[in-house]
Amino acid sequence: MPAREPGQAHGETAADQGGARGWPSSSLLWALALLLLGLLATAAIAHHEWAGQQRRADLLQQGLANAAQARMRQPLQGAAMVLRSMQTVFLSSKGMNQEEFAHYQQNLRPHELAQGYVLTAFAQRQASRDRPGADAYRYQFVAPLDGNQVLLGFDISRQPANLRALQLARDRDLPTASAPFELLQFRDGADSALGITVRLPVYSHGTVPLTVAERRAREIGALAVSLRLEPMITRALEGRVLEDMHVQIRDLDAPPGQDLVFASAQPDPARPQQVRQMDFGGRRWEMRLWPRRDTAEWGPLRAILVAGTTISVLLALLLWSQMTTRQRAVELGRRMSVRFGESEARFRTLNELLPALVLLANGDGSRITYANQASRELLGDVVGLPLCALFASLRACEDAIAMATGGSGWRSQEAMLAPAGSAPLWINASLAQVEVEGVPHLLMVATDTSAQRAMTERLHYQATHDELTGLCNRREFERLLREALAGHDGTVAAVPFALLYFDLDQFKLINDLSGHAAGDQLLVQLVRAMRAELAPGSILARLGGDEFGVLAPGVDQAQAEALAERIRRAIERHIFRWYERTYTLSASIGLVMVESKGSTLKDLLAWADSACYQAKESGRNRICTYRDDAASTHRIGEMEWASRLRGALEQGHLLLDYQELVALDPATDEGMHVELLLRMRDPEGGVILPGAFVAAAERYGLMPAVDRWVIRTALANFSRLHPCGAQLRSCSINLSGASVEDDGLADFILDAVATFGLQPQRLCFEITETVAVRDLKRVAQVIERLRAAGCRIALDDFGAGMSSFGYLKNLPVDSIKIDGSFVRDLGRDPVSRIIVDAVTRIGHERQLRVLAEWVEEESVLSVLRELGVDYAQGFLLHRPERVAFQRGFA
């Protein structure tokens, strides 16, 4: 045999040695590359976490800024509410003295409506003693008087900021704020005396003056609410806003150097600022907010960096270890004892550093021979114990060992470990058979999923329960109802049960008077009281704001009614106290018994809602059991129409038609006038007339939303309503009673007019006579605001309500539409002719335009021309057509 070269092991070639020497540099480069890639990934994750924290901080700051802007309006609007109330008192009172003035203020509770409230005062308009031809405004009544006596007789004209606000309020008849100035009664105090006044004029008796000249002539004095700025702002913004943010407020209309209203600190240019602007009472305030401290949380970033770096190092070491296996095999082949020791040490070192649980047991799992550091920290000292002693389920462990020893291996989705002396935990694990020194062993690798499982359970609970009361929410309650309806085989359950559906009467009043915090506390207390009345197995759920449901299994009609009565009494006798107020409530309860097959979830909810509504209509605070009769069927039909109408509003399935209004004397008006008519598109592409769904819309409070959709859609597409385009002279829109009684209707219309740049003279709003006389004062106020802006008003269906002609003297309208029931029989009924003639004469006497509807015959048209009616509409003159911009729709 040829002699071996020095340095060659038995059976080893030179190529083998060269290859072994070349591996370390290449494996090290790969390991370093993996390490670099891991560090880059860690940096990217950390940057993403940091960016997410910054986004959350920005959202928090924006939310606080929006909240600050809204909360700053509350005391100012509260002051305006006090002034408007006192203005009404002056207009309705024949006389006023200091005692009555103070009594009214005490009843209004202005300190609750406006933070920073100081006083309410009335200044009487007088001729100035010092300035001939000028007016003086001297305070005559002040409340509270204690501490403010110095203001009695004080002339407002001596304070320019106050006087300008007073004059602006007088000319606009709107609450007007003054520039900040030092309050007279606080000048000698240690605290800030800076404040503002909100003013509102008081006019002499009569109709509301509409022009500036009338307002100046009829002014008898001015009301004022005085507010101290520092307590007003700090109380309005107390809580999260001032705890987390610095705030600076400036009056943009004040001269430079005098514009600072409030500042908790000087702005820090290094921190992002939120800027909000608030307009009130003719003045503009700018609010700047910036965080008091760095909101970033560095703990998660450190954890990501440490964990990512550690994992990257371990993976790099693992790769380097794998790539150097051949070298170690050659080296360990020559030195068996050294190889065995190094391999075992490296295995143990790597496994000790791994965050996962690593356990090694003998071949049948009867004894654990090794547990890494993570296993010892979570499970304790388990070496020597059987592997199945760790599992909560012995059967699951035995099955896992059988699969592992069978060669297929075992991997669980989730398993529970419950070792003695340690807390139970959930894991994702795998178990496989390996050989160590030629002997079969079982290797288990697992990760702790307890925190993830707890989070999943928490999310599931939040998805199925109401956060405030801890009751089941609507989704979970409907799931339980389905289970009660159907058995495991899909058939209807044989066990009868009762469904109670109820809501609290006048609950909104508590929210409006005492705030949502009071309402939330009341709900918590009522839930506790209602739970005490439930039998075991009954389920109480919160279905909405003040809506609740009860599922009572295994009860008959009498037991269900007794349960409903216990709940009603528990609510009725509960006394709720909130600060200085005491409230009692009642509930209207609808009851549905389910004793046979054939019902669906939709049926149950509709029946229960219908029964609850009937309880409300019957006087509230009572129980109504659903009966399968004509009234209930009609009510459910209305509910379905209301649901379809809501869907049409959301999905854009409402349509508009127009009908032309024809001038009977074309020489007097050559323009095109139309009236808009509402329609709804059904799922099959047909068109549904309003008679099918308007009653349901009125009953379920949907008409204000429908009217606002019509107004906004018409104004946004005004030049595309009629084929004549921009030449359309005017458009008439009907307003429902609910919309007219909405305090925000006039503001909505005027905002829409300004948004779409439409001339208000081209809009005519029709109000039915019955709606107009239902609340004459409120309707007159809405009409006057719209007419003052230039819009025209028509009194629709005049004569249908059998009301007096005297209402025409009090309603400032522009035109009258004679009800079609009189017009239709005009050619045959002498009484109808007399009524139409009388309405026309009275309308012309008041310089109103008169319009007749339902004109369908030539004979009727001739009589209308003979009587001097101005306009007519009906099928004879023009049949309704789809508006131009919706011609491509159904």
Automatic annotation (TrEMBL):
Which residue ranges does the record annotate as region Disordered? 1-21
Residue stretches making up the CHASE domain: 141-288
Q: Matching CDD domains, A to Z?
A: EAL, GGDEF
Q: Where in the cell is it found?
A: Membrane
Gene3D superfamilies associated with the record: 3.30.70.270, CHASE domain, EAL domain, PAS domain
Q: What is its main location?
A: membrane
Residue ranges of every copy of the PAS domain listed in the record: 343-380
User: What name does UniProt use for this protein?
Assistant: EAL domain-containing protein
